[in-house]
Amino acid sequence: MSSWIWNQSDLVRLAGHDQPMVRQWACERLDILYGKAGQEVLEKLLKDKDKEVLLEALNYLENYPDPKFRDMVLNAYETHAGAVAGRCALVLGRFKDERLISAYERKIKTKTIDSDERIWVTDSLGELATDSSRNILRGLLSGITEETDPYLIDILIRSLLKAKVEIATPLALYARFYRKMPMEILYPFTVACGSWYSLEDLEREEKKRLLGKSLPPVLSETVTYLKDKGFTSLAKDLQQAFSKKDYRQVIEKSWQWAEKRVEDKGDRSGENLLLQSDLPPGINFRVLRAFKEFLAKGPEDSFKGVATAALIILARFLELENLWGLKIEEIDRQSLFPILFEDRDTVPLDTALIERILAEYEPPAIFNHCLEQLKDHPESYGTERTLRLLGKLTDPRAIPILLALLAEEGNDDFQDESVDALAQIGRPLVDYLEQNFDQLNLDQLSEILFVLRDIPEEKTADFILLHWDQLWSINKDDLLDALEGIGSRRFIGPLRKELREGEWRDEEVFYLLCRLHGVNDVLLAQIEKNMIAKKKEEEKRVQTLRGKDLMALRQNTVNVELKCRGCGKPYLYEVENIYFPPGQKGEPVIADKIVCKNCRAINQYEITVKGELAITSHMILTAALIEEERLKPGEARSSLPMLV
Asked: Across the strands, what pairs with 571?
């Protein structure tokens, strides 16, 4: 780390800078680059008056919790509102600080709490998990109506489960409202039990043929999963029960299987651990038991939703079978790798598994185990944990393997873990990139910018400056993020030459770099005015979104990113006339004259992915306004033949 541009003392110094943007940057860099060792800045930043700086400091504290900061966080909660107060509440909940409750109640009485803060506090009460917090959560549950925001219901039920409130309590809510919003209430149960299905997935009713029987897609996929895992008899029985609409049998059989599998293990202490846990697979066991008990008192016509949730929760429970009641310190050495590399979802217990492997095995042996796993089971969900373990080793031999994963389309979690692992390798990665730059494809080069952001060495700056134009053309936004994270003074000159009117992100990074290094450029005053105007505009749009006034959101122009075919550089252009040729498929046509901000080429451009998203968002908003009859088709400058 001695070769890094920013040492710990530099960042601590910048955390006291007069510019909030610099303080926020210094806090984020200390968190990423120095971890718990840089926490000394929190003494200062948790008192910061700037909202964004304080949020960054709270994020740091969430990553590296330290109870000595509890009083400061409580004070921040009492003196702030909105997102800041909400994040403070979450930290206090995780610290098990019951003073949160009295502070929350004072805010309720004085009406100094908004809806955003209420949601955060609801989550925090689940983390707190005391008798007082459980009572408040029960009271919030009793206030639910058919008009309540489904998001609030989701947070509240998950908090009840975290706080270990008897599961019959939220199920009583389901019994009240199952006709109007069945899956909105059951969805949080599935998420808490490790499901990755969205609410929309659970609500989808389109039928899909499966062995002559029709099931909703989510059930069809789950039944197929059980078969693939060897639970053929169970899958067949559940499929038949669903086909006969015998939802009671589905619920009963789901619980019976869970109970029997645990009994077959013959470990009562393991069962007790399952019953006490608020994480998968323990929460799954408790929820399935509660679903079975619901059969005795719930309305008969409400069982369909519960049966759907039960099947999904059972599948996740069986997926994690080898983790039931597992005690890391008692696992025999030979079982560590097989358990970590299982084809299953990642759970918090895996962090302890990785630490035990690092303690038990020499790095070369771990590296070989990882290579074998990646070679033999590349599609396994165990790959995510394999990559995480590789990152801990920081072995340069992993670089080609990790870069190859960046070139593949598929699991985003695999790519995220590859990025993290490459960043931990550090300088050897930059050496490798210098020698193999021409062999990397566009996807790899774009992803590698995320990695370089967290390798703040002058050698990294050398690499970026050498390939500046090509990297700018490939993905300007990611390059700017890398420039910001590395923070080299040498980026100021080249970036100044790139500044163009309307390119607010370029200006923002230039401004930050100048402030970091004390460079007083004549452009800074105007850039600062532009940044203030941009922030006010964003705040206005947020308020408009909260008011749900679609008409106020619409503008007659759209900021569209276009990439010049001549110089290869992308820029934002304010476009007024966009249309889709009738009867044709493909890109939209922009009727405005576009002059490249760099090389002045006229109408020589392609629409970037970012540009397409901007156009699509504009078109969807316009279509919604026309449907509401608040806008006539002829009044829309950007017409809508795309919808025909």
From this structure: 562
Residue type, 495: L
* Average pLDDT over all residues of the chain: 90
Q: Is 624 exposed, middle or buried (0-12, 13-18, 19+ CB in 10 A)?
A: middle
Residue 296 in tokens: 């005795």
Residue 40 CA to residue 38 CA, distance in Å, equals 6
φ and ψ of 162, to 5 deg: -60, -40
What is the model's pTM? 0.88
Separation between Cα atoms, residue 97 and residue 417, nearest integer Å: 33
Question: In the structure encoding, which two tokens stand for residue 67, read together?
Answer: 């109870």
pLDDT in tens, 376-422: 998 899 999 999 999 999 999 999 999 999 988 767 888 999 999 99
Identify the residue whose tokens are 């069982």: 303
Which sign, positive or negative, has the C-alpha torsion 290, 291, 296, 298? positive
- Containing H/E element for 402? helix 399-406
What's the pLDDT score for residue 267? 64
Each residue's pLDDT tens digit, 328-379: 898 999 999 999 999 999 988 899 999 999 999 999 999 999 999 999 998 8
Judged against a pLDDT cut of 60, whether residue 527 lies above it is answered with: yes
CA distance 42 to 86: 18
Rounded distance, CA 425 to CA 394, Å?
Answer: 4
Q: What letters, b where the CB count within 10 A reaches 16 and e where it falls short, cover 108-122?
A: eeeeebeeebbbbbb
pLDDT band at 631 (very low <50, low <70, confident <90, very high): low
Beta bridge partners of 561: 572
Q: Supply the pLDDT for residue 2.
A: 45
Question: What is the pLDDT at residue 208?
Answer: 43
Q: What does the pLDDT look like over 273-325, one tens digit per residue?
A: 677 777 888 899 999 999 999 999 999 999 999 999 999 999 999 999 888 87
Token pair 């109970």 in the structure block, residue: 259
Q: How far out from the chain centre does Cα 600 lie?
A: 39
Helices (H), 15-149: 20-34, 42-45, 51-63, 70-79, 82-94, 99-110, 115-128, 131-142
* CB 491 within 8 Å of CB 483: yes
Q: Give the Cα-Cα-Cα angle 148, 93, 413 (nearest 5 degrees).
A: 80
Q: Which CATH number fits domain 8-176: 1.25.10.10, 1.20.1050.10, 2.40.50.140, 3.40.30.10?
A: 1.25.10.10
3 state SS for 196-233: CCCHHHHHCCCCEEECCEEECHHHHHHHHHHHHCCCHH
CB-count exposure of residue 223 (10 Å: 0-12, 13-18, 19+): buried
